[in-house]
Structure formats: C-alpha cells, structure tokens
C-alpha cells in the first residue's frame, strides 16, 4: 500500500533501501521533468487545456511503468504474488494508463476532455480488470 503513495516507499517498508532509493529518485526525476505536480494542480482546478499545454509527454510516459512496477515489486518482495502470473494486473494497469495518457489530449469522455491526469486514472480500472481476467484464463488452463 505504501507504493501507492510514492514509488519506493513499499521497498523501504520491505527493507530494500537501495531499490527504494532508486525508485524514489526516478519518481522525483520523472515528476519534475514532466511538470506532474503542476499538471495535477491545474487538473484539480479544471484547467485541462493548460494542463495539456504544460505536459511533457516524453517524460510523463515513464511514470505509469515506474508506478505499477514499483507496486508489483513491493508486493513480490513482501511475499505476496506467489502465483506466477500475479504481475499481469500491474502490467495491464500500466499499459492501459499509458494508453490513456497517449490519448489524453484528444479523447473525450461524455463530451468532456479529461486531460493528462484524470483520463489515465480512469484507465487504471479496466487495466486491472483485463489483467485479472487474463490471469484467471491462464490459470484455468
């Protein structure tokens, strides 16, 4: 759960300090380079057009992979995820969030442009669902 707050925190909790520090440094690097905190602030204020304008997509595209990999890695290190396909919900969530980010400046939901914060967040849920479904199908056979 700590990795949801910030990549690397789950690794600190598990005693993996070097790995946690690497994830935390990567998180800060990507966050600063992508202007992510400014995007969040603008998005929360409903200024989606400004958020899109200030987004550095080249950097922000790294964030979903780092975020979900860090979560999976913390769960794995804590002894969870004994199923060999337990990584699939994390992989598909990262993939779907990245796709949501790619289309965030153009795709409208119910006639509303959600931008680089809200649309990728909405894509988490179908990503996790697809990952769980595929994991169940693989484990069934």
Topology, please?
Layout (H helix, E strand, L loop, with lengths): L1 H4 L3 H5 L3 H18 L1 H9 L3 H7 L2 H4 L1 H16 L10 H15 L5 E2 L2 E2 L1 H8 L1 H17 L1
Antiparallel strand pairs: 1-2
Helix pairs in contact: 3-7, 4-5, 7-8, 8-9, 8-10
Description:
The chain is an all-alpha fold. It has one domain (2-140). 73% of the residues lie in helices and 3% in strands. The protein has ten helices and two strands. It has helices at residues 2-5, 9-13, 17-34, 36-44, 48-54, 57-60, 62-77, 88-102, 115-122, 124-140; strands at 108-109, 112-113.
- Helix count, per DSSP? 10
Mean pLDDT: 93
Shape: flat
Structural class label:
mainly alpha
Helix percent reads: over 70%
Tell me briefly what this model is.
With 141 residues, the chain is mainly alpha-helical. It is 73% helix and 3% strand.
Which terms summarize this structure?
3% strand; 141 residues; single chain
């Amino acid at each position: 759960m700590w990795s949801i707050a910030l990549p690397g925190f789950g690794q600190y909790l598990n005693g993996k300090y070097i790995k946690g520090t690497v994830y935390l440094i990567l998180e800060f690097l990507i966050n600063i380079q992508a202007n992510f905190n400014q995007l969040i602030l603008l998005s929360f204020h409903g200024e989606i057009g400004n958020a899109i304008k200030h987004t550095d997509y080249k950097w922000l595209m790294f964030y979903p992979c780092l975020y979900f990999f860090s979560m999976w890695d913390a769960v794995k290190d804590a002894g969870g995820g004994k199923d060999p396909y337990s990584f699939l919900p994390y992989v598909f969530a990262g993939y779907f969030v990245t796709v949501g980010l790619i289309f965030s400046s153009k795709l409208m939901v119910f006639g509303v442009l959600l931008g680089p914060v809200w649309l990728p967040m909405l894509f988490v849920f179908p990503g996790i669902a697809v990952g769980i479904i595929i994991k169940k199908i693989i484990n069934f056979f």
